[in-house]
Amino acid sequence: MKPEALLSRIRVVLCRPSHPGNIGAAARAMKTMGLHDLCLVAPRQFPDAEATARATGAVDVLERAQQVDSLAEALQASVFSVALSARQRDLGPRLGAPRAVVAELLACAANGPVALVFGNESSGLANEEIMQCQAAVTIPTNPEFSSLNLGAAVQLLCYECRMTAFAGAAPLPDAGVTPLGGEPASHAEIEGFYTHLTQIMQDTGFYNPQQPGRLLAKLRRLFGRAGLERDEVNILRGILSATQKPTRHGRQD
Ligand code: SAH
Q: N or C: which end of the chain has fewer CB within 10 A?
């Protein structure tokens, strides 16, 4: 199954969200990662101008969002669902790290729709909501300040889903641009540059072959680190050649 198709099988469920702005932020977080199926369980206020504003270009995700009265309705078609909880609970499904559980979620997505379930901003998920899920995840955080903003938690999980769906190599949006880098310079081209550089350093009195010291070795080390490309060697040699030519303002001495 293609990564995009797998991602489209992941439903994000927000249980009883209080702030419409967070609903918009979640929609945006989802769309940036290629997820589109948003489901709202008893939102306090929706639709709402703040949600639309925070969604920016992901208004389509908001418009298509399903609204239901209970988590059971939201999960009706799901074959696997994961509860997101800022606190570890003593009861409920087994707990896992985000990456490991997301791997399981995507494996299940090959068989049918799956869901990520998020809680209310102040109270989190109720125990009876967590118990309807097959796995639970706590995002590792600073133990003294562990609760993420709802939209941020959605973003993080959606990112993990995208990375897993593309096996860690999700393409970048600008993949089509021509890279600035070019062909590497050959050994002979680089040696030609060193010869030219040494000559200019000698002509200008910067380098005295009678007292070579470690200058040439240091310069080779410097340019060796740079991994010179052919164009770059040509630029450097052009600069060296320019020092040998008369300037526009008259001859150099
Ligand atoms: N005060 C609530 C936190 C609510 S934050 C509580 O203690 O549960 C809103 C939702 O974002 C949470 O219900 C959870 O779904 C998600 N979330 C926030 N921080 C999280 C974390 N560190 N790990 C997993 N989910 C988190």
A: C
Q: Are the C-beta atoms of residues 70 and 41 closer than 8 Å to each other?
A: yes
Residues with CB under 6 A from ligand 1: 84-87, 118-119, 121-122, 124-125, 137-139, 141, 146-148, 150, 153
- pLDDT tens string 55-75: 999 999 999 999 999 999 999
Question: Are 157 and 218 within one domain?
Answer: no
**pTM for this one?**
0.79
Based on the domain organization, do 154 and 200 belong to the same domain? no
Range(s) of the domain holding residue 202: 187-251
- N-to-C CA span, the chain: 71
pLDDT, one tens digit per residue, over 175-191 is 677 778 889 999 999 99
Last residue of a domain, one of 102, 135, 165: 165
